[in-house]
Design a protein that fits this description.
CATH architecture of the largest domain: Alpha-Beta Barrel
Number of strands: 9
Bound molecules: flavin mononucleotide
Order of helices and strands: EHEEHEHEHHEHEHEHEHHHHHHH
Helix content: 40-55%
CATH superfamily of the largest domain: Aldolase class I
Distance between the termini: 39 Å
CATH topology of the largest domain: TIM Barrel
Strand order of the largest sheet: 1-2-4-5-6-7-8-9
Largest sheet: 8 strands, parallel, barrel
Shape: globular
CATH class of the largest domain: Alpha Beta
Structural class: alpha/beta
Mean pLDDT: 96
């Protein structure tokens, strides 16, 4: 059976323009927005539309891939109100972020810090689950724990008991940060104590990693983040295991002008210049030609000139 593949939410990276591009390349079954931070208030509709422009197109990317809205926060009542509003605006599902390691977020009682409090995870998931219509999935994303990976066992059980539809597990603790490896072996341990559907996440950079991860985790679903930036074709490669060739510089470079243009529309042209340069840096890990291109483009600041150079590629 083919796996179901998720594009990871990545704040400042997998925004609307990147989701649009990657789902157009293909192989992605599901996206999640960058986190929308919830403190005390209900966000305005504009904020929801900015976080998830796909709300205006049936909560799907232009190529038809469903997008869930991700909320991050520690207070039950505001999370409930924002989840309900997101659903009213058309979100196909609500994902709750309990994995963010950022210091400012954790200091304000959001993200991975909640992994220390199983009862709070339960309350948040249960309250959001009870508040949005049954047919709207409510899902959660965790790390293995804050500093103790065994926390994932009780946390997964609580999230299941609270009624979540599925659980994404980034197989590292908050203290591990982004340091390799990802401990995929914890997925089997979670499956011993919980029946919740699990999406395995962390350190899948290429086909080989996927095969190793799948052999260990043995889930039906996988989520990929940074690997997709270095190889936009990774989802397709996994889906069509016969298509094992690494994409060439030629195949990837033609994606750049489209990304720049949609980024310019979504944010602003100067910001799109910065975003495209950031992506080029990631692509430089895939093909050395991108390094040369980055060196050439990094000095260009005028959007018009930047666009012309991309279009001449
Ligand atoms: C720059 C960046 C931003 C991220 N933002 C989010 C986010 O908004 N919500 C979330 O749940 N995870 C976020 N993550 C974590 C990723 O979704 C994912 O769990 C992590 O990168 C591990 O997967 P990977 O090894 O495939 O990249 C972010 C990661 C990075 C590198």
């Amino acid at each position: 059976m083919k796996p179901k593949l998720f594009l990871a939410p990545m704040e400042g990276v997998t925004d609307w323009a990147m989701r649009d591009l990657l789902t157009d390349v293909g192989g992605i079954d599901q996206c999640v927005t960058e986190f929308l931070r919830v403190t005390d208030n209900l966000h305005s509709d504009e904020v929801f539309y900015k976080n998830c422009p796909e709300l205006l197109t049936g909560s799907r990317t232009r190529s038809g891939t469903p997008v869930f809205v991700q909320l991050l926060g520690g207070k039950v009542e505001p999370l409930v109100r924002n989840a309900v509003r997101a659903q009213e605006l058309g979100a196909l599902g609500i994902d709750l972020n309990f994995g963010c390691p950022a210091k400012t977020v954790n200091r304000h009682d959001g993200g991975a810090t909640l992994l220390k409090f199983t009862d709070r995870l339960y309350n948040i998931v249960k309250s959001v689950r009870d508040a949005v219509p049954k047919q709207t999935p409510v899902t959660a994303k965790i790390r293995l724990g804050f500093d103790d990976p065994t926390a994932c066992l009780e946390n997964a059980k609580a999230i299941e008991a609270a009624g979540a539809d599925w659980l994404t597990v980034h197989c590292r603790t908050k203290t591990d940060g982004y340091k390799p490896p990802a401990y995929w072996e914890w997925i089997a341990k979670i499956k011993e104590v919980s029946k919740i559907k699990i999406i395995t996440n962390g350190e899948i950079w290429n086909l080989e990693d996927y095969k190793n991860c799948a052999a260990i985790a043995q889930t039906e679903d996988y989520m990929i983040g940074r690997g997709a930036l270095r190889n936009p074709f990774i989802f397709k490669q996994i889906k069509e295991l016969h298509h094992q060739e690494q994409p060439t510089y030629q195949e990837i470079k033609i994606l750049l002008p489209g990304f720049f243009n949609s980024s310019s529309n979504y944010v602003s042209a100067p910001f799109a210049v910065a975003r495209t340069k950031g992506w080029l840096k990631q692509l430089a890990f895939t093909a050395p030609e991108f390094n040369e291109l980055f060196d050439e483009l990094k000095v260009i600041t005028k959007p018009l000139e930047f666009r012309e150079r991309l279009e001449s590629l």
